[in-house]
Design a protein that fits this description.
This protein is of the alpha/beta class. It contains three helices and 19 strands.
């Protein structure tokens, strides 16, 4: 599965891992949001790594398939309703912010109905650089790489790689312009 080869999604080992992950997600989503310590314990178990080196928030509800294929850098924040189908690795760099109702999907299902009905799948990894912001409702599809210092506009469907240093929007998502110094807010402006 992780190697990007055909696998059987009904394999007993995968089903057991999926069931464990879904149970942890349910526990996480049912915690009181102010219970930061308990949320951290579950996220660390789910992602199978400790997150002591920086801010890491998955605002409930959060769902993933396995968890162990999700890697997040420092200063990660996701708003409500993040779904990560991590049949392959989904890697986020540092300073990544994900708006509400976003999805990162690595699974690829056969187009042929007979093959699809057997439960076979493929998966391709998703890689997200550092300093990336996803607006609400963004969908990122299998095999996509997004560079550093990128803004993906709300509602976009990312089907191809996005280079560093751009604002990208649409369905399919495409770069519309470079990010420049002119994009900095004037924090001394009383109107903002």
């Amino acid at each position: 599965m992780i190697a990007g080869k055909v696998y059987n999604s009904q394999d007993s080992e995968l089903v057991a891992a999926l069931n464990k992950s879904k149970s942890l997600c349910r526990q996480y989503n049912n915690l009181d949001f102010s219970n930061v310590a308990a949320r951290k314990v579950i996220i660390d178990e789910l992602l199978q790594e400790e997150h002591n080196d920086g801010y890491c928030v998955f605002t409930p509800p959060f769902w993933c398939d396995y968890g162990f294929n999700v890697k997040v850098g420092k200063n990660f924040y996701s708003n409500h309703n993040l779904v990560i189908l991590d049949c392959a690795e989904v890697t986020f760099g540092d300073n990544v912010f994900v708006g509400p109702n976003c999805g990162f999907y690595t699974a690829i299902h056969p187009i042929d109905a007979h093959q699809r009905n057997t439960g076979i799948e493929l998966a391709k990894p998703i890689k997200v650089g550092s300093d990336v912001w996803f607006g609400g409702g963004v969908t990122v599809l299998p095999g996509v790489t997004i560079g550093n210092n990128v803004v993906i506009g709300a509602g976009s469907v990312v089907v191809k790689d996005i280079p560093s240093g751009v604002v990208a929007v649409g369905n399919p998502c495409k770069p519309i312009r470079k990010i420049t110094e002119a994009d900095k807010l004037d924090l001394d402006d009383p109107n903002i």
